[in-house]
Design a protein that fits this description.
It is a single chain. By secondary structure, the chain is mostly beta strands. 0% of the residues lie in helices and 49% in strands. The chain is built from no helices and 11 strands. The strands form 2 sheets. Strands 2, 4, 5, 6, 9, 10 and 11 form a 7-stranded mixed beta sheet that branches. Strands 1-3-8-7 form a 4-stranded antiparallel beta sheet, with no helix packed on it. The chain is globular, with a radius of gyration of 13 Å.
């Protein structure tokens, strides 16, 4: 059973930065596609970014230039560095992982517990 445990998040003022982390309990972490998604109040969960096993990254347009996804296979950890945060970035952020699929939706097999990010204006 794969477990993803998230940390980070919290309350920050607009223009500030936060870093989210997600540690996986899986031996073959290096082959997984990893992703971050978020869900704002009253909205559907939306894709933020993903990184493939070969370290190819892909971002949603609304975070390009502000957010960076990365992975450390030795630590079995993925990160989301968020800079220049905006109030509309407020929501619950989820990490996700899958050894075979790696799209932009809910198809990932494994999910973190979610962490709240609140950006005040």
């Amino acid at each position: 059973q794969v477990q993803l445990v998230q940390s980070g998040g919290g309350l920050v003022q607009a223009g500030g930065s936060l870093r989210l982390s997600c540690v996986a309990s899986v031996r073959t972490f290096s082959i997984y596609t990893l992703a971050w998604l978020r869900q704002a109040p009253g909205k559907e969960r939306e894709f933020i970014a993903r990184v493939s096993w070969s370290n190819v990254t892909d971002y949603a347009d609304f975070v390009k230039g502000r957010f960076t996804i990365s992975r450390d296979n030795a630590k079995k950890t993925m990160y989301l560095q968020m800079n220049n945060l905006k109030p509309e970035d407020t929501g619950v952020y989820y990490c996700a992982a899958d050894p075979l699929r790696g799209g932009k939706g809910p198809e990932y097999d494994y999910w973190g517990q979610g962490t709240q990010v609140t950006v005040s204006s």
